[in-house]
Amino acid sequence: MAKMVKTDTQQLVGDLFLHDLTTYQHSLRVGDELFRFASYLHLEDVETIYVLGILHDIGKLGIPHALLCGFYYKMSLFKNNLSLDFLYMS
């Protein structure tokens, strides 16, 4: 059972890599952060927490790549505008 789960997880992560590199990289960062936080808290089964972090955005496999690219572009514009707004208000 555990081997099958590992294989399925690897397949999903590989699919995410092929579908959208930005989401893949984000998911790895979330997994790493959760692993470090769980280790810091001395939680059991930190590997499962790591995997859950990696898989937290797996639903994006169902969103067309072009739509994801547009979303990230708009979010970067939004973040830049927030930064500029903050500078203007300072």
Keywords:
about 90 residues; mainly alpha; 4 helices; about 80% helix; flat; disordered C terminus; HD_domain
Notes on the structure:
- With 90 residues, the chain is mainly alpha-helical.
- It has one domain (2-89).
- The chain contains 4 helices and no strands.
- The chain has helices at 2-19, 21-40, 46-54, 65-89.
- Helix 2 (21-40) runs antiparallel to helix 3.
- The N and C termini lie far apart (57 Å).
Number of strands: 0
The whole-number mean of residue pLDDT values reads: 80
* End-to-end separation: 57 Å
- Continuous helix count: 4
Radius of gyration, Cα only, in angstroms? Answer: 17 Å
Topology order in helix (H) and strand (E) letters: HHHH
Describe the biggest sheet?
Answer: none
Please identify the structural class as seen in this structure.
mainly alpha
Strand content: under 5%
Globular, elongated, flat, extended or rod-shaped: what is the shape? Answer: flat
**Fraction of residues in H or I helices:** over 70%
Low-confidence stretches: 82-90
Domain module count: 1
Organism: Robertmurraya beringensis
Pfam family, one: HD
Protein name: HD domain-containing protein
InterPro entries: HD/PDEase_dom, HD_domain
